């Protein structure tokens, strides 16, 4: 539900604009308000989950997200919709930040943990892809308000289930790590980073560089603060794990390419092939179906047989190939011939790579830092998606504008801009292959076929927090 709402508005944007009278720059804030709040609070929410209890954070986040969804659904003016989307982002961050930490605690045995992470990744991937389908279907058959109101029954069922099924975990207590000045610094830095990225296409280069410099200054101040306080919000020792750091870095590049595919692909279907909202939604269905089937049926076995390192590399190769195929899309393309093969390659590649990357990212964290590692992993997803979207849409628009200025036909110029974006996305995924080969390669003396949790640095053992199945 929370991942779907990150991109469910993509197809519904024209309907929202016509109904509420948004300008083009103002309309972007329907997406940006969610992304900034979501991305900015993930790390803080993950750490607070470790301190106050992950169930408490999860349930509170569900309540906030569901209530905000209702506000979005009944919004009749621009201000209320944007404000409610920001509150949705807050609730989404509270829930998403602690889910992986809860899974790791619930399934400490390596093989079971690999299966659980595969299910988690399948749900997340399906949510991302199904957002486009549901956005089109609900907007065309009902109206755009229902893309948000649909969350009320889902959220209510999830709340009841969470309260009844999940056992209480006490957390370590706020006294164990409540660094409030550090929280302000890192939240501000992350929000400013996402704001800088998502708005880069609307402002000039000097302003973007100035905001980026300010973000770096806030990160630096936060890092200094964490080395000097007795109760750090973020224990910098987590970055000593090459596995954790490398998995998050690889994920940024992988998500940048995949998120760009979803957004640019929707534009190609509508503006080049002339699809409506519902047909665009159906056109995306093969990807989540392939991802779900492969993740639930094969991912854990593939990781167990070949190891997470080889699974990541193989998946990234398939993703790169799929994006490269999209780089040859013609203006008069055929869905079955030009789009579907690439979509299936992307689905298979993501199904292979994402669970392995997730397991590697969580493998490098101690049990008491599981919420923090979960929040960090979700944060890099948002940063990667925002960065890919900003760069690829800017490149596509610049290419199209240049061709139109040279007298090129509109349809051909638009398709050429999208082809450039897909080629760049393929290059980003290829860079992910190189990064994974460098940072995720198993240490000498290991086979590379171990499940993620077997690659952890030796730490003192702790009993995992019990969560009822």
Automatic annotation (TrEMBL):
Cited CDD domains: MFS_MMR_MDR_like
Domain Major facilitator superfamily (MFS) profile as annotated: residue spans: 1-444
Membrane-topology annotation of the record: Multi-pass membrane protein
Localisation per UniProt entry: Cell membrane
Pfam families associated with the record: MFS_1
TM region positions: 27-45, 57-76, 82-105, 117-138, 144-166, 178-198, 204-224, 245-269, 281-300, 312-331, 343-363, 375-397, 417-440
Region (Disordered): 444-469
Basic and acidic residues composition-biased segments: 457-469
Key words, A-Z: Antibiotic resistance, Cell membrane, Membrane, Transmembrane, Transmembrane helix, Transport
Main location: membrane
PANTHER family: BLR6921 PROTEIN (PTHR42718:SF46), MAJOR FACILITATOR SUPERFAMILY MULTIDRUG TRANSPORTER MFSC (PTHR42718)
Protein name: MFS transporter
Biological classification of the source: Bacteria, Bacillati, Actinomycetota, Actinomycetes, Kitasatosporales
